[in-house]
Design brief:
The complex is a heterodimer of chains A (about 425) and B (about 700). Chain A has about 425 residues and is mainly beta. Chain A has a domain of about 130 residues. Chain A is about 5% helix and about 40% strand. Chain A is built from one helix and 33 strands. Chain A has a four-stranded antiparallel β-sheet, with no helix packed on it. A four-stranded antiparallel β-sheet of chain A has the order 4-5-6-7. Chain A has a four-stranded antiparallel β-sheet with strand order 8-9-10-11, with no helix packed on it. Chain B has a 23-stranded antiparallel β-sheet that branches. A five-stranded mixed β-sheet of chain B has the order 1-6-7-4-5. With about 700 residues, chain B is mostly beta strands. Chain B contains six helices and 41 strands. Chain B has a single domain, classed as Beta Barrel (Maltoporin, Chain A), CATH 2.40.170. The two termini of chain B are about 30 Å apart. In chain B, strand 21 and strand 22 form a beta hairpin. The chains are: A mainly beta (about 425), B mainly beta (about 700). At the A-B interface, strand 3 and strand 7 of A face loops of B.
């Protein structure tokens, strides 16, 4: 889903370019027309849907995972997976990085990085690169893109007492450089978060690594109440600053990075946002935190997730201060807070107006959905529409289409009942 | 005659051919009184229960491992992860893992140590193997859900020494010794030693290695380089037989050691080059048997044992290996990519068993038995200081009562039995009660579960008999399943036992004339499993918890044909088909599950085997024998995951298995000397039992056996 940030950026640039070209033509009809082949053409996209068959994926589960490509989600037959699509779980995991046409991941063999393309409903290996120095577990790493061709992967090591990183050149998958962050455990804490969350701010070429420290494992583990932020020079990978969140909070998805869902984004001004949550009496209160452009610390006075009633799980930036969010209503007594509880819903946050509106269809709020991990929404910036899927208790999984410009919600395709509906990913053809 | 009647009843109804009963039958035969004219194995097959009986003694000279023999029988499938000493899973009529229990002479095989398996037991020690399918006799006192394997050892009345040494492909060596010596004062000594070693350096075909020049992974063949296996079992039994106060009283001590290197994880692309497992187990036991125990019609079999079992898994090398045997330095261990681990497991095991038979006339028998099984599970880690030690204890009591009868001149035999399973748990932990259920099961807790069943055999005419059996069986949760592991597995003290209704219906018969013997058997089976215990990932990072879920319904049919000509030619063939369906209607979110009633994946469902042996006698001398044998195994390919979802060409499959084996054995001097050459996988097929975990190709095994008696 990290890909969407860049896809959106590309689409915005494309739209601006197109608009500029259009204005120029209007202003000066004498100007020679731009040859057709030189006009940037928005890539044709399709949607890759992922379901699991036996039980929900994510959380390190090995389950039967089927993928299927669809040209459109706003209309068509019910999406079924009987003898359609590809089973990928024998060699690959559902957890992946996507950008443009390609998927990137550490596969089940846990000895390499792979660049994959899902084409003609089959997974193809485009290029592989064996580990050289740093090694990673499948599913347990965080990532960010420095540019179209540079991917950086980061995770705690096996003992979880150091953070290792690898920079990859993704056109040929060669390793540019590798190393270990100059971050040490402090006090009595004996381990870092498994993956943490990594984000990149292009304006000043800084990486932001969000992490916290823990002691012990499993049910007796204790952890820091306030997560930390390390500011890293993206060129030298030197840790330049360290700070701590000014209030008690934990990043969303700290163990699995953003391989299943998006929890960070940047806006047009270069502000960096992070989905987080704090333990409260109601359960886990979602927060959308910010590091202002040019600054390095969490903004203590900002929370972009107003009227929080539970944990914030995914975020997608739609432009102009609007964020498409998936969150849980923490009402343990009535709704439950399990992965499968029907307690999750979509809303749109307007950060400018500090409002949050739950998604409705036909004048009625869309019922609560089950499923916590994974992202069942995709933003097509060319269409300025969000395709989002829900798994409600009373009917089969349904995809809706949210028109960002008008705020209208229409029905899209349905997914056949019985599957665990996990992912929508928007990919270039 | 009372003794004879009791023995016949026990044998006919309970199929209790444990050590004591075998001895009784043998002793009767030695006195020249032929009870049935049929071998023990044949009598077992013709009993009321669904059982495979494998005559091991007649094949000791030619086989290298018991597991290969068991794998060829109807309804049974062994899936191995690799070569000698590799982990394996035995399924009986589609049920495997913890559903199947193993015994040696009616006592849990675990008493010899967790490292002792079908694959490394000295074969010289074994007389025959009984495989009970679905319905397990009460005298095994077990909470087996799907079946049980009982290994019956030799109980000869004579002094003997049986020693063998074999050498085989992939640097495999195997030495077995068993014997018996009766001193003049009546004291009997029975030593047993078995040693196995293999480098398992067989060729892996089509493994991926990185070619830097083309920047591609290319497929090539490489030898395994970190799969050494060593096991040793030494046992000494000392006791007396045929005393006024005891038919048999033995005390024994045994030691078992296993060292195993690990070559791959669950897929062969994940190569391991340093991690290994070791286990040491000491055991002491005492067994007492007596007919006419207190009462003339009462016989007793009592045993007590204690085992000190200590296993260590070492994964301390931060390396990442490839199939070239090269490695890069890594910051993770090899098996699960975490920190260094040197994990110890101490599992003390105490077993007390009592088995009483009371005969009511010549045709009725009551059997009462009791078993206590107390298991500890003490775990700690030497180098991983984040690992929290745990010490769980679980005790279970199983009480069985059976009534056996013979009617209409033994043409009908019936067995009725009930079993009471008592699980006693002492819970001190009270943390996270909403997750572990510890508030619902406070302090000491005892749960009681009843099981039971019936087995009937009816033989209207000589070559045709029908048998049917039913058991409502129960498997009690293991300590780890109930109490968690202190770190990554939450306790679930509300866990219910697994239950299954197992039904068998079969017919069989034997046609015989002077030269030809033809036997047939067909069995149908149904298994309705419920409250299946399986791990479920919990919501916190990396945490699991065992929960009860609806499981599977299995139905199937198996058939076996046997032909013998003048005891020179034996031809055996069997075929099994089974259909296992998922019966979980709802997903975890409460909505209908798409896999409901689908075939359960990753399990063999259609397989067959055949073997033929021919003996030449008096070939070079008066008491020599040359045996030529050939065996064939076929397993239909099967899906790794749920069938029907995704296109066929993208789905992972375990390929069809089609292998032929051959052996030749020459024995001379009344089988005092034996030499055999065995070839497995004659045509060097690439064979898999599990997904992408290759088994050895063609292998040879040369064995010399000396039998002094």
């Amino acid at each position: 889903m990290k890909k969407l940030k860049f896809f959106h950026t590309a689409m915005v640039a494309l739209a601006l370019t197109a608009a500029f070209a259009s204005c120029s033509n209007d202003d000066n009809e004498d100007q020679a027309p731009v040859p057709e082949e030189q006009i940037p053409v928005a890539p044709v996209v399709h949607y890759d849907l992922t379901v699991t068959v036996d039980k929900h994926g994510g959380m390190g589960r090995d389950v039967t995972t089927i993928m299927q490509s669809r040209e459109r989600l706003d209309a068509g037959d019910v999406v079924n997976f009987e003898n359609i699509g590809a089973e990928i779980n024998a060699d690959y995991t559902m957890e992946a990085i996507t950008r443009g046409k390609y998927y990137y991941q550490v596969p089940n063999s846990e000895d390499r990085f792979v660049k994959l393309q899902f084409k003609d409903n089959k997974m193809h290996v485009v290029q592989a690169q064996p580990f050289k120095e740093n090694t990673y577990n499948k599913r347990q790493y965080t990532h960010t893109w420095l540019n179209d061709n540079t991917l950086i992967i980061m995770a705690a090591n096996g003992n979880k007492n150091a953070i290792v990183w690898t920079k990859l050149k993704t056109d040929d998958m060669t390793i540019i450089s590798e190393g270990t962050l100059d971050l040490a455990l402090e006090g009595d804490w004996d381990s870092f978060t498994t993956s943490g969350i990594l984000a990149y701010r292009q304006n000043d070429n800084k990486l932001f690594y969000f992490y916290y420290m823990k002691k012990g494992t499993g049910r007796k583990a204790t952890k820091e109440t306030n997560f930390r932020v390390a500011v890293i020079n993206a060129e030298t990978m030197a840790v330049e600053q360290k700070s701590q969140c000014p209030f008690a909070a934990e990043m969303a998805g700290s163990a699995y990075g953003e391989l299943l869902q998006q929890t960070t984004f940047s806006d047009e001004q270069g502000n960096l946002y992070l989905a987080a949550f704090s333990d409260t009496e109601i359960g886990e209160e979602g927060k959308l935190l910010r590091i202002k452009a040019g600054e390095y610390n969490i903004d203590a006075d900002f929370n972009g997730f107003p009227n929080s009633d539970g944990k914030l799980l995914t975020t997608q930036y739609l432009g102009n201060g609007k964020v498409f969010c998936y969150s849980r209503h923490d009402d343990k007594a009535n709704l439950g807070t399990d992965i499968d509880s029907y307690a999750h819903y979509y809303s749109v946050v307007d950060m400018n107006a500090n409002t949050r509106t739950r998604m409705s269809f036909g004048g009625t709020e869309i019922p609560y959905s089950s499923g916590r991990f994974s992202q069942r929404s995709a933003f097509n910036s060319k269409e300025n529409k969000v395709y989002f899927g829900v798994n409600i208790q009373t009917s089969q999984p349904q995809i809706y289409v949210y028109d960002v410009a008008t705020g209208n919600v229409t029905e899209g395709v349905k997914v056949a009942e019985g599957y665990h509906f996990e992912q929508i990913r928007i990919m270039e053809d | 005659m009372l003794l004879l009647s009791a023995t016949v009843l026990t044998d006919a109804y309970c199929q209790g051919v444990n050590g004591r009963d075998t001895l009784s039958v043998d002793s009767v035969v030695l006195r020249g009184v032929t009870v049935t004219g049929k071998s023990k194995v044949q009598r077992l097959r013709e009993g009321a229960l669904a059982v495979n009986a494998i005559d091991v003694r007649s094949m000791v000279s030619s086989i290298s491992s018991l597991s290969t023999l068991v794998d060829r029988t109807a309804g049974v499938k062994i899936r191995e992860e690799g070569g000698v000493g590799s982990d394996f899973d035995l399924s009986i009529n589609g049920m495997s893992g913890n559903s199947v229990r193993y015994f040696i002479d009616g006592v849990p095989l675990d008493t010899k140590g967790s490292g002792v398996t079908l694959a490394n037991l000295p074969v010289n020690l074994i007389d025959h193997v009984e495989i009970y399918k679905g319905v397990v006799p009460t005298w095994l006192s077990s909470d087996a859900l799907g079946g049980a394997v009982n290994i019956v050892t030799n109980r000869k009345k004579v002094n003997y020494l049986d020693a063998s040494y074999g050498i085989g492909s992939f640097h495999t060596h195997r030495g077995d010794l068993s014997g018996q010596y009766v001193l003049k004062n009546g004291l009997t000594i029975r030593p047993t030693v078995g040693i196995n070693y293999s480098k398992n350096d067989y060729m892996m075909r089509g493994v991926e290695v990185w070619d830097e020049e083309s920047r591609k992974y290319v497929e090539t063949d490489r030898r395994r380089f970190h799969d050494d296996y060593f096991s040793a079992l030494a046992q000494m039994e000392v006791g007396v037989t045929d005393k006024r106060w005891a038919d048999e009283f033995f005390v024994s001590a045994s030691y078992n050691k296993v060292e195993k290197e690990i070559q791959t994880a669950q897929i062969q692309t994940k190569v391991v080059g340093e991690a290994e497992r070791k286990s040491d187990a000491w055991s002491i036991s005492a067994n007492y048997q007596k007919h006419g125990f207190l009462l003339d019609a009462l016989s007793a079999r009592l045993s007590v044992s204690h085992t000190w079992d200590h296993a260590v898994t070492a994964d301390t090398a931060f390396r990442k290996y490839n199939w070239n045997g090269e490695f890069i330095r890594s910051s993770r261990n090899e098996i699960n990519g975490r920190g260094r681990t040197l994990r110890h497991y101490k599992r003390p095991l105490t077993i007390v068993r009592a088995d009483f038979n009371y005969t009511l006339g010549a045709r009725h028998l009551l059997n009462l038995n009791y078993a206590l099984n107390r298991t500890g599970n003490n775990r700690w880690d030497e180098v991983d200081n984040t690992f929290e030690p745990a010490n769980d204890v679980l005790a279970k009591h199983i009480i069985g009562l059976a009534y056996n009868q013979l009617l209409f001149g033994e043409r009908i035999s019936n067995t009725f039995f009930i079993k009471d399973y008592i699980n006693h748990l002492s819970i001190e932990q009270t943390d996270i009660p909403t997750v572990t259920g510890s508030r619902e099961v406070m302090g000491s807790n005892t749960s009681n579960n009843l099981g039971g069943g019936v087995a009937v055999r009816y033989q209207p005419i000589e070559p045709f008999a029908v048998k049917a059996s039913y058991e409502h069986s129960v498997r009690l949760p293991l300590a780890r399943e109930l109490l968690g592991n202190g770190t990554t597995v939450y306790a679930n003290v509300t866990l219910k036992p697994e239950k299954s209704d197992n039904i068998n219906l079969g017919f069989f018969g034997t046609l015989k004339d002077k030269d030809h013997t033809f036997s047939y058997e067909v069995n149908g089976f149904l298994r309705y499993v419920d409250n299946y215990i399986q791990p479920q990932v919990s919501e916190k990072e990396g945490m699991m918890q065992y929960v009860n879920v609806p499981a599977v319904h299995i139905k199937g049919i198996e058939g076996e044909l046997r032909y013998d000509w003048q005891k020179r030619l034996q031809v055996i063939g069997n075929i099994t088909w089974q259909d296992a369906r998922d019966r979980q209607k709802l997903k975890t979110d409460g909505k209908p599950s798409v896999t409901f009633n689908n075939h359960v994946p990753n399990r063999p469902w259609f397989y067959a085997s055949a073997e033929a042996r021919y003996q030449f006698r008096h070939l070079l001398s008066k008491h020599d024998r040359l045996q030529l044998g050939i065996d064939y195994q076929w397993v239909h390919w099967f899906f790794l995951s749920w069938e029907g979802y995704g296109t066929l060409d993208t789905k992972a499959r375990i390929p069809e298995k089609n292998i032929l084996g051959a052996n030749i054995t020459y024995s001379w001097h009344r089988e005092r000397y034996n030499i055999s050459l065995d070839c497995q996988n004659l045509f060097d097929q690439t064979v898999y039992d599990n997904y992408k975990l290759q088994k050895p190709g063609r292998s040879w095994f040369l064995k010399f056996r000396l039998l002094l008696q």
